[in-house]
Design brief:
InterPro entries: C-type_lectin-like (IPR001304), C-type_lectin-like/link_sf (IPR016186), C-type_lectin_CS (IPR018378), CTDL_fold (IPR016187)
CATH topology of the largest domain: Mannose-Binding Protein A, Chain A
Strand content: 25-35%
CATH superfamily of the largest domain: Mannose-Binding Protein A, subunit A
Distance between the termini: 27 Å
Pfam family, one: Lectin_C
Order of helices and strands: HEHEHEEEEEEHEHEEEEEEHEHEEEEE
Keywords: Disulfide bond
Protein name: C-type lectin domain-containing protein
Radius of gyration: 22 Å
Shape: globular
CATH class of the largest domain: Alpha Beta
Largest sheet: 7 strands, mixed
Organism: Maylandia zebra
Length: about 375
């Protein structure tokens, strides 16, 4: 890919969701009902790109607005997440130190460090440690010898790289990266919380104003009433927790993707999408990959068609909507020996892309606009 193509790729924005700001104050549950009646649901925010889209339309407003994130009481309801959007947690990928995770401190231990042996320990997120960042652009890890709280470390990595080190592959590399340092412990991008999205999606992205805002960071005896999330109506758009019965404006969202659970070959899938919607879905960045893989989890086939096909005449892969191939998530190399190839993404596991004969029959996802 040329430098010119890289510049063009950087201008492509993901278009999976459209947000709507509703000024009329409602409680969180009232807002949820309102959004489900007229739209898809209360706003889900998969990543920072969408967060920027959300607050762009509300920067002239003051105060806060509900989003579709709520907390289920009880430490037993916590779920582990990787900080990097699109990386799903699998317990088989992590090597806990003996007796971990154990919630052994005064506060609930919801963040994770890697120790000198390569084992993982859960500790309180307000502790300060060095940390390991991941940079998506050059696929590299960076050890940061600057002690910060977990969320401060996360913010640093997001501002200067991509995110905290996340996922099985990065974890393996982080072990060797960390062992070369003199630090006894370093943060990685593993955390757990009790927060859920109203639409049932499992996105790990969080944008909290301060770790002390969160009920689950407090002692086990703190019952708290701040079980619903709101976003500040300013350029930062940081999130806070509040009493769900408080009246606030809110954000709804509609999707721009639709899963078609009908088995079709690649050409039939393209024709169906163009007849009934817009086109077979493209994926041009990590954010779009995350949205598509979340939707693909409900597919009835082991793979779904994407709008990516191989041209023998040009000897290259191209998206059906003529967008550049800026982002790739191949399960293997892209060498081709067949002129009838298109791309299908696995609906489980790591959601890698596979080269398939275009006559195979899979479900597929259409873009709506």
């Amino acid at each position: 890919v040329s430098l010119t193509q890289h510049a063009e790729c950087s201008l492509i924005l993901c278009q999976g969701y459209k947000y709507y700001f509703i000024k009329e104050p409602k409680t969180w549950e009232e807002a949820q009902r309102y959004c489900r009646e007229g739209y898809k649901d209360l706003a889900t925010v998969p990543n920072m790109t969408y967060m920027k889209t959300l607050y762009t339309d509300s920067t002239e407003n003051q105060g806060n607005a509900w989003i579709g994130l709520y907390s289920i009481s009880g430490k037993e309801n916590r779920r582990w997440h990787w900080s990097l959007p699109g990386v799903e947690f699998n317990d088989k990928d992590v090597k806990w130190s003996a007796g971990e995770p154990n919630d052994g401190g005064r506060y609930l231990e919801n963040c994770v460090v890697i120790d000198s042996s390569g084992g993982l320990l859960d500790i309180g997120c307000s502790n300060v440690h060095s940390f390991i960042c991941y940079n998506e652009q050059n696929k590299s890890l960076h050890f940061i010898d600057n002690k910060k709280k977990w969320r401060e470390a996360q913010s640093y990595c997001r501002e200067n790289h991509t995110d905290l080190a996340s996922g099985a592959e990065q974890l393996k590399e982080a072990v060797s990266t960390f062992k070369s340092s003199d630090e006894p412990r370093s943060w990685i991008g593993l955390f757990r919380d009790t927060w859920r999205w109203s639409d049932g999606s499992n996105y790990s992205y969080r944008h909290w104003r301060d770790v002390g805002e969160l009920p689950e960071e407090l002692s086990e005896t703190d019952s708290g009433t701040r079980k619903c999330a709101m976003t500040e109506l300013n350029k930062e758009g940081k999130w806070k927790a509040d009493d769900c019965n408080t009246g606030k404006p809110f954000f709804c969202y509609d999707e721009k993707l639709i899963l078609i659970n009908e088995r079709k070959n690649w050409d039939e899938a393209v024709n169906y999408c163009r007849k009934h919607h817009r086109d077979l879905v493209p994926i041009t960045n990590l954010e779009q990959q995350e949205l598509v893989q979340e939707k693909a989890k409900n597919a009835s086939t082991p793979h779904i068609w994407l709008g990516l096909r191989y041209s023998c005449a040009l000897d290259l892969w191209f998206w059906v909507n003529d967008q550049l191939v800026c982002y790739e998530n191949w399960a293997n190399d892209t060498d081709t020996g067949d002129c009838n190839l298109a791309v299908a993404m696995e609906t489980r596991g790591e959601h890698k892309w596979f080269k398939k004969n275009d006559a195979e029959m899979f479900s597929f996802i259409c873009s709506l606009s």
